[in-house]
Amino acid sequence: MIRLTKLNKEPVIINCGQIERIELIPESKIIMMNKDYFVVRESADEIVEKIIDYNAKIYNWHQKLTIEQNNGEGMW
User: Fold this and answer.
1) First CA to last CA across the chain, in angstroms?
2) Using an 8 Å Cβ cutoff, are 23 and 40 in contact?
3) φ, ψ at 67 (rounded to 5°)
4) In what side-by-side order are the strands of the sheet with 28-32?
5) How many angstroms separate the CA atoms of 28 and 20, rounded?
6) Which long-range contacts (CB under 8 A, 24 or more apart) does 56-59 make?
7) What's the pLDDT tens digit per position in 17-76?
8) Could you give the CA distance from residue 16 to residue 2 in angstroms, rounded to a whole number?
9) Residues 6+ apart with CB under 8 A from 33
10) Other CB atoms within 10 A of residue 5 CB
C-alpha cells in the first residue's frame, strides 16, 4: 500500500499491486485493474519510487522473517 494525495489534498492509500497503469494528463492518473482511477498530485516518478520502496520493505520483512524461522541459518 502506498500513500498518495488527491488533487483536493485528501490523502489516499492505494494497493500498488492493483495498479494497471499511470497516465500523465499532466497530473498522474492511476488506473487500477478494475478500471477505477485516482488522479493524484504526485508525479509518475514519485509513484514508482513509492512502489519500489514498498516492495523493498516487503522483501526485507520476508527475508528477516525467513532468517528468524531458520534460527539465523540464512534463507537457503
Assistant:
1) 28
2) no
3) -65, -45
4) 19-24, 28-32, 37-40
5) 13
6) none
7) 999 999 999 999 999 999 999 999 999 999 999 999 999 999 887 777 676 677 655 545
8) 6
9) 18, 19, 20
10) 13
